[in-house]
Amino acid sequence: MAALFRAHDWSASPLGPVEEWPQSLKTVVGMMLVSEQPSFLAWGPERTLLYNDRYVEILASKHPALGKDFLEVWHEIRSDLVPLVEQAYRGEPLYWDDIELLMERNGYVEETHFSFSYTPVRDESGRVAGLFCACIETTKQVFAKRKQALDIAARQRAEQDLRELNNTLETQVVERTAERDRMWETSPDLMLVIDFNGYYRRVNPAWTVLLGYATEELVGRHSNEFVIQADHAMTAETFEKAASGGRPTIENRYRHKNGSIRWISWTAAPANNMIYATGRDITGEKEREADLATRTAERDRLWNLSQDMLARANYEGRMSTVSPAWTQVLGWSETELLTRSYGEFMHPEDMAPTLEAIARMAETHQPARFENRIATKDGHWKYIEWTVTPELDGANFIAVGRDLSVNKAREAELEAARGALRQSQKMEAVGQLTGGLAHDFNNLLASISGGLQVLKLKLQRGQYSGLEHYVDIAESSVRRAASLTQRLLAFSRRQTLDPKPTDVNRLIASMEELVRRSAGPMVELAVVKAPDLWLTKVDSSQLENALLNLCINARDAMMPGGGKLILGTTNKLVDQRSNDGDLPPGQYVTLWVSDTGTGMSPTVMERIFDPFYTTKPLGEGTGLGLSMVYGFVRQSGGQVRVESEVGAGTTMTIYLPRYVGQALADEPVEAFSVESGQGETVLLIEDERALRDIIEEVLHDAGYRVLTAQDGRTGLQILNSKTRIDLLATDVGLPGGLNGRQVADAARVQRPGLKVLFITGYADTAAVGNGQLDAGMEVLTKPFEISALARKVRALIDA
Predict the structure, then answer these.
(1) Model confidence pLDDT, tens digit, residues 417-433
(2) Same fold, 187-287 and 495-659
(3) What are the angstrom distances between the C-alpha of 323 and each of 346, 516, 535?
(4) Between 422 and 538, where is the model more confident?
(5) Burial class (CB in 10 A: 0-12, 13-18, 19+), 203
(6) Half-sphere exposure (Cβ direction) of 506: Cα atoms closer than 13 Å
(7) DSSP string, 272-310
(8) DSSP state for residue 666 in the 8-state scheme
(9) 205 to each of 186, 280, 482, how far by Cα in Å?
(10) Is 792 helix (H, G, I), strand (E, B) or coil?
(11) Contact (Cβ atoms closer than 8 angstroms) between residue 194 and residue 277
(12) Rounded CA gap, 767 and 732, in Å?
């Protein structure tokens, strides 16, 4: 250690170079280095550690530790040492005859014991500058004393145990003898004393229970009289092994007194020139083994002969065994199947759902079924239906796969046939529709054309009286054409709706007289309105049309004898239990129409909402009425349900979602002047030139400044300019790749809050917003009256 002291670079330590050490430190270090007792010195507030050669043995693997913080060196026992070190640094010497410390100096924690003293060391000023410790490790002595004490205690306990054992041995021998006798008498197993020649010398009562023989029928007789002949040789071999000092075991068959065969499993040991043996009846086990072997053989036959693909696989993606059907169905060899992940054989599109189903089975421990596509060796895909069942070990599962190729081919053929039939029906329906539409529109065009021609002729003649009559004829024909168009759009669910909060009870009250007149005198009308009926948000005019349509159908079903027609409303809560899946659970307002007419068969009920399907005579129905009702209600977020029985009438119920809010107040009817503009600027985007010119003239005459564009891109350029625009009026269907809604949305990026009026005759409801328009947007459906256009423009600008 003196050599290490001289070699150590003390200038980098808190102590500084040795030449600068105080004499008190040098004196203590010199004394410590020559001491034969393990000693160390902790100097300064940093507790710098200095020690001698004997202390190296205590440090063990922590050596060398010169110049380190004493408490950091012994960090594992720091909490034990800190109070002792602090006491010494306060100038209070201390001495411990024995202290136990859990030290870690050889790479592991060990119990150690020490006798030591801490002596404060003062510097030249008399201040405590460190502590000096002289110590002796007493671990070995402590362990030796502990072992000696344990040995003495163990000897004392052993002597006491021996005395107790000697005191009880005689009692135990007596008890064991009695116990052995009881066991002999009561044991359910066979007990036997037999000589080396095979003659029974003694048997217990279990022989009578298990084999039916009395004791006197067995003692003195040879075992071959009871063991079946096929087992004689191995039974004799067992006697020879026991005679040679062995402890043999054997399973052989005994004949019961009633003639049946029992399997007995024997354990034997020789003693006193006799064989002592116990036998257990294992007939049931043998039968189960035989049954298991049979079932195993049957399972193997099924495994090898099954046309379904059978496999055992784990959740890590590997199969451990596969049946021959895999090769027959897919072409892969067993080696190829077992050396590759089963995910490699799946179609990429099916892999994620398949692995999710397997993971869900692993989590729930419940069987699962699914379909996927599996690759064949020749590069094709086969649809396989899988049933997978988890095993109890939690790591594996059994999979049964059935080839669906033939079924899929048949389904494809069936779907193709259905498609052909649907196409045929569609073409037939289109033929009916186009014929009817051509007839209706030709009539309307004839009325409009005729009225305009007569109007032109009279103007040429200067006959100005009675001209309004022909204008009325043309306007009436236009309205009828618009109504027909709306019915077609409702059938296809593409009409533009104008939903508003609606009180259905109030709507029925406003229509009651119209329904009564339409139903006629042969039909008794009753109205059952629910009190406190909820509101619904719906296009009220379309709901009126739907209600009138249902009432007319009900009337026709009760002709010619008439009957009773009931209109009713209810609040309805639809939950999971009352729902058949076509309506989201929630609160609904229902409007129902019930009649006492002829009713409908299930076959007719399945088709009543099909377009162009009608049970009325040719020429009396287009088959679009109920399709229109169904399309409108579904577009409004509701459903139509039908209850009917032949001869007992029909009930048609419309479900509409509840609206939580206030109903709109009735708007007062006021005279409205077309000349309502005050110089505001309206941008009109319309691709139909004739209509664009008419609307431009109408708005200009009404007092507005009008800018026009024929497509969305041109209109958007104007909107992106600095030009003032108070209102955008745009058609929805525009050429050039931008529809009206897209133009409006893009314009509102630069002009937030821009007022927009959509003018449309055939609206893609998704493009318009399907009733979910933003604030400051309205819809006007073509054809429209000029006054209606002016009102919409004025109302939007003033809003």
Answers:
(1) 766 655 555 555 445 44
(2) no
(3) 18, 75, 64
(4) 538
(5) buried
(6) 13
(7) TTEEEEEEEE-HHHHHHHHHHHHHHHHHHHHHHH-SSEE
(8) P
(9) 7, 14, 108
(10) helix
(11) yes
(12) 8
Q: Which spans in 43-138 are helix H?
A: 53-59, 70-73, 78-89
- State the CATH architecture for 187-287: 2-Layer Sandwich (3.30)
Side by side, the strands of the sheet bearing 200-203 are 200-203, 190-194, 274-281, 261-271, 249-255
Tokens, residue 630: 């169904």
The fold of the 306-403 domain, in CATH, is Beta-Lactamase (3.30.450)
Residue of 679, 729, 725 lying closest to 704 (CA atoms)? 679
In the predicted structure, residue 666 carries a pLDDT above the cut 70: no
**Residue 76 · residue 61 · CB < 8 Å:** no
Asked if 289 contacts 264 with a C-beta cutoff of 8 angstroms, the reply is no
Average pLDDT (560-568) is: 91
**Residue 763, pLDDT above cutoff 50:** no
Considering only the top CATH level, what class is 495-659? alpha beta
Q: Which burial class, exposed, middle or buried, applies to 452 when counting CB atoms under 10 A from its CB (0-12, 13-18, 19+)?
A: middle
Strand 649-659, strand 586-595: pairing: antiparallel
- Which pTM does this prediction carry? 0.33
Token duo for residue 743: 């133009």
Mean pLDDT computed over every residue of the chain: 85
From the CB of residue 709, how many other CB atoms can be counted at a distance below 10 Å?
A: 21
CATH of domain 681-798: 3.40.50.2300
- The string of pLDDT tens digits covering residues 589-642 is 999 999 999 888 888 888 777 655 565 554 444 445 677 788 788 888 899 999
Beta bridge partners of 133: 40, 118
258 band by pLDDT with thresholds 50, 70 and 90: very high
- What is the token pair recorded at 392? 């109890």
- Name the CATH architecture for the domain at 2-137: 2-Layer Sandwich (3.30)
Q: If you compute the radius of gyration of the chain from its CA atoms, what whole number of angstroms results?
A: 53
Distance CA 780, CA 786 (A): 11
CB-CB contact of 233 with 198 (8 Å): no
Full 3-state SS string of 645-664: ECCCEEEEEEEEEEECCCCC
- Using CA atoms, how far apart are residues 550 and 508, in angstroms rounded to an integer? 13
Residue 651 forms beta bridges with which residues?
A: 594, 643
For residue 431, the surrounding DSSP H or E stretch is helix 405-461
Q: How confident is the model at residue 17 (pLDDT cuts 50, 70, 90)?
A: very high
Cβ–Cβ < 8 Å for 687, 735? yes
19 to each of 41, 73, 101, 125, 321, how far by Cα in Å? 18, 26, 37, 19, 83
Structural element, H or E, at residue 476: helix 467-491
State mean pLDDT over 513-517.
Answer: 80
Could you identify the residue written with the tokens 């009564």?
516
Q: Report the C-alpha gap between 97 and 300 in whole angstroms.
A: 79
Contact 681, 725 (CB under 8 A): yes
* Structural domain spans, the chain: 2-137, 187-287, 306-403, 409-488, 495-659, 681-798
The letter for the amino acid at 73 is: V
The per-residue b/e assignment along 657-680, b for 16 or more CB within 10 angstroms, e otherwise, is bbbeeeeeeeeeeeeeebebbeeb
